[in-house]
Amino acid sequence: MRTATSSNAAPPSRARVFAATLMACVALTAANAEAQPRPQEPLGPTIADRGSATYAFRTFVVTSEDGLRRYKVQVAEPRKPAPAKGRQVVYLLDGNAAVAALDEALLATLAAGDAPVLVAIGYDVDTRFDIMARALDYTPPRMDGKPAADDMSRPGGGADVFLRLIEHRIMPQAEAGLRVDPDRRTLWGHSYGGLLTLYAALARPGVFQHYAAADPSLWWNAGEVLNRETAFLQDPRRKTLSLDIVAGGGQRRGPDQRAPTPMRGSLPPGTLEAFVGRLQAAGVDVTFQELPDQSHGALFRTALVRTLTALSETPAP
Predict the structure, then answer these.
(1) How confident is the model at residue 256 (pLDDT cuts 50, 70, 90)?
(2) Which residue has the higher pLDDT, 151 or 66?
(3) Residue 3: pLDDT above 70?
(4) Are 86 and 289 in contact (CB under 8 A)?
(5) Non-local CB neighbours of 257 within 8 Å, separated by 6+ positions
(6) Among 27, 139, 140, 256, who pairs with 156 as Cys (CB 3.0-4.6 Å)?
(7) pLDDT range class, residue 255, cuts 50, 70, 90
(8) What is the pTM of this model?
(9) Is-catalytic flag, 296?
(10) pLDDT digits (tens, 9 = 90+) for 69-82
């Protein structure tokens, strides 16, 4: 495993906290090390349906600006008093699958520490993922203004619209009535969700304070998201955020199990590490870890547990 950590003093030692919880998280997810569930597999009952002794769940639905997509938002609040400064909040992309990955043992672990509010942003469907909707919402617009699509001809480029919806419609409703610390909001995502998380950090760094991207799909549109780097480094808001990136080793050792495509093969090896190195050299609070034994699919839950556990173990400022 290769590990890169920020050279500046990230309060309060966030990089060390993520590293310290890594092996425990891998152990917690050993039973889930099989491939990521098939996108169209029925969801089935989750802990939000069964109920939890440590977290209270509520659900609301938001419709997209164009009226074509419905987002199911599941909010989980710890069943213990909030700290004086308010709770931290973690926004989880692919929310249906994220809630399906939660269990009472994990929630109890979070509740024992600096318990975060969890806001899972999914789609109002009976499956873990809505493949067409997430391809649109989770991918950045092309910088040349042309229509965006992925290598399976799924329309994309809706990231800015979706991020505005999160900020102006989902966030106020999710946090209504809660004692929240506005300086401790995290965005987490995996794969396309990791791409959106990375794009949000680079293009809209003032909305969240911490960004956690798991196996971000950098290959989308030949790595165009990395072209946002120069403007990001000139943005003074970058000094107040932290970015954590984790990568699985399965796809890095060999080809994707799916048929190879020009877009997926568009970036040379080491692109992600080089990107992290440049940010660190510029003083950005960024961490990177590779998990060689984790496939792209299995990393979904491993990375989710890793992020939530590390945040709950980080002392509140």
Answers:
(1) very low
(2) 66
(3) no
(4) no
(5) none
(6) 139
(7) very low
(8) 0.87
(9) yes
(10) 999 999 999 999 99
Query: What does the buried/exposed string (b/e) look like for 216-246 if buried means 16 or more CB atoms within 10 Å of the residue's CB?
Result: bbbbbbebbbbebeeebeeeeebeebbbbbb
Catalytic residue chosen out of the listed positions 191, 217, 242, 295: 191
The mean pLDDT of 124-134, rounded to a whole number, is: 94
φ, ψ of residue 310 in degrees (nearest 5): -65, -40
